[in-house]
Amino acid sequence: MASAETKTGKILIVDDEWTIRDVLATILTTEGYQVTMAEDGAEAIKKLDEDTFDLVITDLKMPNIDGMEVLRHLSTLNVSTLGIVATGYGSIESAVEALRLGAFDYITKPFHLDEIKILVHKAREFQSLQAENQNLKRELKRTSRVENIVGQSPSMLKLDQLIRTVADSDSTILILGESGTGKELVARAIHYHSDRANQPLIPVNCGAIPEDLLESELFGHIKGAFTGATMNRIGRFQMADGGTIFLDEIGDMSPKLQVKLLRVLQEQTFEPVGSTQTVKVNVRIITATNRNLEKDVADGRFREDLFYRLNVIPLHIPPLRDRLDDLPLLVDHFIKRFNKSKGRRLTRFSDEAMRLLAAYPWPGNVRELENLVERMAILNGEGEIGTAQLPEKFTGLSPAALPVAGAPAEIPDEGIDFNRLVDDFEMGLITKALEKANGIKNKAAALLNIKRTTLVEKMKKKGMLGNDGE
Ligand SMILES: Nc1ncnc2c1ncn2[C@@H]1O[C@H](COP(=O)(O)OP(=O)(O)OP(=O)(O)O)[C@@H](O)[C@H]1O
Ligand SMILES: [Mg+2]
């Protein structure tokens, strides 16, 4: 069914025969369209350049500039105007050619009035569906959660909103957060929600690369710039041209490179190492650090002017212990992920296990949680994770806290027999686990979070088993 808006729109009618122009104009004006006419191809092209139309209905055979040429011109205009060609009987081939040039449809002359009405409605309906589709896509981008960033706590919802707001702005972003809070994840989300999404995102970990190498890594070098520079090499900034560079651990950057970076921020220019030739780039800069940069500025370790340039839009990612509401969602997310990637069938963490997780301070934040779930998936494979499966740091049963038979409170001057004490300690733990598991080795191994084979191996070594393994 044609919606109301498909009966409106601007139509350009192109035909060298005035009778045809007249008939078409009359029908379509009566239908509610706004009609403009052109007597030949040249006039049509001029009108297309001056104004925008929703549809062009053009005759194919016209002196000088024909309908095909009009269509060709239309296709260069980057507009959503649809072309319909009107052709005489016997020239179906040219109609097919017109379709190849992007015409929406064709109609053969002489045409019935209804035929032309239906075709025009069809074209307008197609256009309105296309527009609707585009709007939906835009809306989806605006309202959908930033992919992969799990969290429904108020602070994460705010962060999510902020990411989408700043993504398109092209401004410099400083992402702050403890280790493992998701700084890189956020940097990626910003890039992929920005207009630069189809251009490269180049990450550089400034903390992991020694200073002299970092300069050439970032800005490139020319052949002979230093020993080992056997050829010209472009740097990450040039690789990121048109896109985004993500400078991770920016707080670790040396004073010399801080100066060079400041200039890129101010002028988008730099010189590769050993070169006098200035390179200009168009790069969005996102930086991240888990350090307190303000303190580094106060202590003279980080340039104040650079800090202000980088800190245009700061994004704070809260530590996991401050958003424990997100714990169940994150656990669920990682269980699904590792079940899939490792072919496991973990179901959940028991309520008691979740309580222990919530009581833990998570110094390594989401990464630490991710590692825990991965470890549980590898060790347990399926079903529910209970407190017994959790590592000691959650249960409070850290080795240091366990009473160890014969272990001295302090190391005496004469030293200790390390191997014997560790041996005794292991023996004690294995015995306790076996007691609790009623002697079932599988169960005891699970309680100790070790493989059954490891348990059996250890028991053999300690003489707890016969050589037949039982
Ligand atoms: N909100 C989240 N939802 C899902 N996964 C997350 C979330 N936050 C972090 N992660 C995951 O945790 C891991 C660590 O994240 P990321 O590398 O982005 O942290 P980071 O802050 O850059 O850490 P570092 O300071 O150590 O470099 C990644 O595997 C990431 O996918
Ligand atoms: Mg990181």
For the largest beta sheet, what order do the strands appear in spatially?
2-1-3-4-5
Number of discrete domains = 4
Apparent shape: elongated
Q: What's the architecture of the largest domain, going by CATH?
A: 3-Layer(aba) Sandwich
Q: Which whole number gives the mean pLDDT?
A: 88
N- to C-terminal separation?
79 Å
CATH class of the largest domain: Alpha Beta
User: What ions, cofactors and ligands are bound?
Assistant: adenosine-5'-triphosphate, magnesium ion
Number of DSSP E strands: 14
Gyration radius over CA: 35 Å
Task: Specify the helix fraction band.
Answer: 40-55%
Low-confidence stretches: 398-403
The fraction of residues assigned to DSSP E strands is 5-15%
Quick overview of this protein structure:
The protein has 19 helices and 14 strands. The chain has 470 residues and is of the alpha/beta class. The strands form 4 sheets. Strands 2-1-3-4-5 form a 5-stranded parallel β-sheet, sandwiched between helices.
Helix-strand layout with pairing:
Elements: E1 10-14, H1 18-31, E2 34-38, H2 41-50, E3 55-59, H3 67-76, E4 82-88, H4 92-100, E5 105-109, H5 113-143, H6 154-167, E6 173-176, H7 183-192, E7 201-205, H8 211-219, H9 236-239, E8 244-248, H10 255-267, E9 269-270, E10 279-280, E11 284-289, H11 293-298, H12 304-310, E12 313-316, H13 327-342, E13 345-349, H14 351-359, H15 365-380, E14 382-385, H16 392-395, H17 418-436, H18 441-448, H19 452-461
Parallel strand pairs: 1-2, 1-3, 3-4, 4-5, 6-11, 6-12, 7-8, 8-11, 13-14
Antiparallel strand pairs: 9-10
Helix pairs in contact: 2-3, 6-7, 10-12, 13-15, 17-18, 18-19
The protein binds adenosine-5'-triphosphate and magnesium ion (MG).
Adenosine-5'-triphosphate binds at residues 148-151, 177, 179-185, 290, 333, 366-367, 370.
